[in-house]
Every structure is written in structure tokens, then in C-alpha cells.
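Workshop exercise sheet. Pairs work together: one partner reads the sequence aloud, the other fills in the structure field after running the prediction. Swap roles for the next sheet.
Pair: D.N. / O.F.
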Amino acid sequence: MINNQWYAILSSREVPRGRPVGVTRLSRRLALWRDATGAPHCIADVCCHRGASLALGRVEGDHLACPFHGFAYDASGRVVSIPANGAHAPVPPNFRVASYPCRDEHGLIWVWNGEQGEGLPDIPFFDELDSGFSYGELSEVWDVHYTRAIENQLDVVHVPFVHATTIGRGGKSLVNGPVVRWEGTRMTYYVDNVADEGQAPLRPDEVENPERLFSLQLQMPNIWQNRISEKLRVMAAFAPIDDEHTMIYLRFYQKFMGIPVMRQAVNGLGNVANRTILHQDRRVVLTQLPKRTELRMGENLVQGDLPIIEFRRKREELMRKPARP
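Structure field:
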């Protein structure tokens, strides 16, 4: 994983009030719960006493109590109470587990992967999606590293082949550009796929006024959006489970239908289409080897793979970045 990044790891609805949740994310067993105010917290899902899963325990006010012997943990991962020793007995400082800064924003649970301290950065999200849009959400696990799942969304070459019956109708197989622009850790890539009539594809620097073209965005480290129109978007979060599994949260966003009952129906139908397209991708992506990608891995890439190449370069750059001061 890239250090010092906020990773979207769960949908907010998956962490209810009143009971803990256990998941594997970022190749770690994690226990999450909400305190009395509803704020989420995240610690390692293994009791420091005898190794039981804390996610099987219970929420007691702001604390999470182990199901085995009742040890109570606070949000920092510190044991604050050992029932067998008495309610007022001091707790040795070594009775603690790892904790991870955790936030609930934009309908997602985010965990900070990196050095802790004051002044953590803001959550990186596509903030325009919070302005008048409603959404429907689906999720499923893919048996690939999250880099493979992300790169599928950056692949502008595959559309007329994998999605010939859906979004790839028309056989526009020749790829002009594509043009890639970075703004910090956000990539915008502009797509101009056209019918092959014997012409050579335009190089990225030959594409004029790329901002007029269809565009998509990747926000490092693990969220993406398809900017279909001003009132219609598709967003995905690729939550790393471990080196061979990724939970994909896919959302259909729209703001052209505001009537409550109709809005829910439209969002539901949008996700029917999302699932169809996602499964067309899954059929092929799950066959790719190896299950994770790196900057250099002996592939024969083409000009149209530029967004994938740029993602790998940026990921490599961030992986090498020194720790926060």
C-alpha cells in the first residue's frame, strides 16, 4: 500500500451504531465501531491479551470490549479496563493494539495508512458529487490486487472489445491520445476513440483542446469517476483486501431526477447497467496474470495505455516518497 494516504475501505452503511464490524483491508484484520456520537474508529482486530477477534465483542459507550475476557479498548487502541483486575486497577501501557485514524465522509469509511499525528490531510474526494447528486450503490469482491481493478478503469483500449454490446457499441477501436493531466494526485484523462478508417492515431500532443472531450478521473490512491455528463456520473472505490482480493464499491450518481420515489428507481436501474458492464470487465480481468501490477513488468504496452502507465508512475513515486515530517 502507498504510505500516508486515506484509503476508502467500506461503505458507511456497513458500520452501524451499536455493534462492531470486522473486515480485512490493506492486508490487515481490522475492527471498526462507532462511538456514542456516531464517529467511527478503527483498531487491529486482535486482542493483545489472548488474540481473540475484537470484532466479535460489544460496543460500550465509546469503547470496544473484547468478547473473551471483557478488556475494553479506546479509539487509540489502548486497553482502559481489565475486568478481572477490578474496575479501578491501573492498566500497564503495553496493553494496546495498533489503531488507525478513521473518518466517515461522502458515504464511505476512510482509514489513514501511514504516520499518525496532528494535521492529517483532508479526504480526497470528487466534491462535486456532494452537490445535488443522489446515488445507488453496489459492491462485490474481485480476486485481483486493487491495482488490476483500477487499471481496468484506466484502460481506454478495451472498450469496443469487452463492452461490444454495451458502452463499446460502434467499434471505435482507434485511440487518439489519450491526453493525461495531473493535478496533485488527481489524474484526468481525456478520451477520443474513433472508427478505424486507415488513419494513424493522433499522439497526445496532437489532440487539440482535449478539455472538450469525454473525460474520466482517478484520485489516488483508490477512487475513480466517469464524468458522463454534468448530471450523470459513475464513481468507484477499490478497497484493497489483500494482495489477491479487492472489494469494489460502484455508485451510479445522478441529479436529473429529484422526485423521491422516481429517484430511487432511476438509481436502481442505473446500477443494473453498472453491474452488467462491471461483469463484462470481471470476466476478463480475473484472468490477467500476475494479479497485481508494477511500473515495469515485461508487458508490451501501446500508446493508448498512457493512463495506465501514468498511474503506475505516480504510484511508484508515492511509494518512494519519504515519510511526513
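Discussion prompt: Residues 127-320 form a domain with the Naphthalene 1,2-dioxygenase Alpha Subunit; Chain A, domain 1 fold (CATH 3.90.380.10). What would you look at next?
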